[in-house]
């Protein structure tokens, strides 16, 4: 069955903090393919994130959309490390 809700791409730090990971939260999938970026290279640019999404078969719904950022704490540790999460609405790239 096709999903009618918009899909969201996210960029988060890896569990060990060594990379940023761009992925699309696909419904009904246990593991989501991702594209890693070394943390030492800084925060990936919007262009780099868009290229990562294309490699995963997706694109932002609109080309000029900025990613939204939020922060949260790791599960069960409200006084600990803050996790930054970026997200943007995406759609599958159609073959031309």
What are its keywords?
6-stranded antiparallel sheet; 96 residues; mainly beta; globular; 10% helix
Total DSSP E strands: 6
Structural class: mainly beta
Described by the principal axes of the CA atoms, the overall outline is: globular
Largest sheet: 6 strands, antiparallel
Radius of gyration: 14 Å
> How many H/I helices?
1
Q: Mean pLDDT score, rounded?
A: 85
| Strand composition percent | 35-45%
H/E order of the elements?
EEEHEEE
Helix content: 10-25%
**End-to-end Cα distance:** 23 Å
Poorly predicted sequence stretches spanning 5 or more consecutive residues: none
Oligomer: single chain
Describe the structure.
By secondary structure, the chain is mainly β. 10% of the residues lie in helices and 40% in strands. It is built from 1 helix and 6 strands; from the N terminus they run βββαβββ. Strands 1, 2, 3, 4, 5 and 6 form a 6-stranded antiparallel sheet that branches. It starts with 6 loop residues before the first strand and ends with a strand. The mean pLDDT is 85.
In short:
With 96 residues, the protein is mainly β. The protein has one helix at 46-55, and strands spanning 7-13, 19-24, 34-38, 58-60, 68-73, 82-92. Strands 1, 2, 3, 4, 5 and 6 form a 6-stranded antiparallel beta sheet that branches.
